[in-house]
Design a protein that fits this description.
Blueprint (H helix, E strand, L loop, with lengths): L8 E4 L2 E2 L2 H44 L5 H36 L1 H4 L6 E5 L8 E5 L6 E2 L2 E16 L15 E12 L7 E14 L5 E6 L2 E6 L4 E19 L3 E4 L3 E5 L4 E23 L2 E7 L8 E11 L2 E8 L11 E11 L1
Parallel strand pairs: 5-13
Antiparallel strand pairs: 1-2, 1-3, 3-4, 6-7, 6-18, 7-8, 8-11, 9-10, 11-14, 12-13, 14-15, 14-16, 16-17, 17-18
Helix pairs in contact: 1-2
Length: about 350
């Protein structure tokens, strides 16, 4: 009866490897894997910290503790701070990885010959059979995620009019967007096209001109002049949307011992797509003085706005910063005599 005895030996450059060497190699590999995991955790922690700061800044702005200009400045400073933190921390980890590899290159070279030798007695292939089991496959990550922050100017395209005839202040009407996005490489062997998708909260603000404010008149929402002088008149719509973009641009392929990655750092990119979602609510703020008293009014109403939000958007830029534009295909107000569609232009950060 045929008997088969399999004896596995690790052969390195023609010499038998010692058990202690194998243990040392495993230890180095574990350290490298831990450092790679630490890189992912650093990015995630910094993005979470930035997200909390932005939420805190928005809360201060909503409570009128800071101005819009100050809130935008604080957001920009926070974004730059955490982006720099990520770069510096990743550089430290990369240096640690390089040092570990350089000092143990003979032990951790995954491309060196790792051959299992099996001795088969009574087999049809003869007395000695050598089986090469090199690791020929590279680990690949196709999907990444990131925080998205955007802000800038907001206004409307009104039927039969242009922006010069807008009933809203150009500099005073603004938008803000914050969300989370995932991008997945479309093709197997190139990162030239990415499918980017996610979820975002959008705040679109409008400041009427000529001392006016919004008034519901049945199914219509119209602008009317306020009976006394207004210090502030602002209307804000809050939306939850799901953006989808195709992103195009070059990438740098970074190959390592047992993995490869595509990097878009300092690379040009362009994204085109759209979004769809829901209106979460509307808020109108009025500030004025009456009989020497300062009056603040906040109205949370339907204002006959459309509940379903959908539109087109695009961005073009380099690295994490882009010029961003979005346009609502749905009119702001439902059943309006004259349609008004929201349009926004600003800066977008993919952190």
């Amino acid at each position: 009866m045929k008997r088969i005895i399999m004896i596995g030996l690790l052969v390195c450059n023609g010499l038998l490897c010692q058990q202690s060497f194998a243990q040392e190699k495993d230890s180095v590999k574990v350290k490298l894997e831990a450092l790679e995991l630490k890189k992912e955790l650093v990015t995630k922690e910094e993005k979470e910290a930035l997200k909390k700061k932005i939420i805190a800044i928005n809360e201060k702005y909503d409570k009128n503790e800071i101005s819009f200009e100050e809130s935008e400045k604080l957001k920009k400073e926070a974004a730059e701070l955490h982006a720099l933190n990520i770069d510096n921390k990743l550089a430290i980890i990369e240096n640690s990885i390089s040092l570990l590899k350089r000092n143990n290159e003979n032990q951790i070279d995954e491309k060196a010959t790792n051959t299992k030798v099996s001795i088969e007695i009574g087999g049809k292939d003869g007395f000695l059979k050598i089986d090469d089991e090199r690791n020929r496959y590279q680990q690949d990550i196709k999907t990444y995620s990131n925080l998205v922050v955007a802000f800038g100017l907001n206004n409307t395209i009104t039927e039969g009019q242009n922006l010069n005839d807008s009933p809203y202040k150009v500099g005073g009407s603004r938008f803000f967007e914050i969300g989370w996005a995932w991008d997945t490489r479309v093709f197997e062997n190139t990162n030239a096209v990415r499918f980017k998708y996610g979820v975002s909260f959008q705040y679109n603000g409008l400041k009427p001109t000529d001392n006016r404010y919004f008034v519901e008149n049945g199914t219509q929402t119209i602008l009317e002049e306020f009976p006394i002088n207004l210090d502030k008149s602002k209307f804000r719509m809050a939306n939850l949307v799901f953006p989808v973009h195709f992103e195009f641009g070059p990438s740098k392929k970074i190959e390592k011992e047992n993995s490869f990655r595509y990097s878009t750092n300092n690379k040009f990119k362009i994204g085109v797509g759209g979004y769809a979602g829901f209106n979460l609510g509307n808020l109108q703020k009025l500030k004025y003085k009456q009989d020497g008293d300062k009056i603040k009014e906040k109205s949370r109403k339907d204002f006959n706005t459309n509940n379903f939000i959908y539109g087109i958007s695009a961005y073009v830029g380099k690295d994490d910063v882009s010029l961003y534009v979005k346009y609502d295909l749905n009119p702001i107000f439902n059943k309006a005599i004259i349609d008004q569609n929201n349009i926004s232009l600003g800066v977008r950060f993919d952190l």
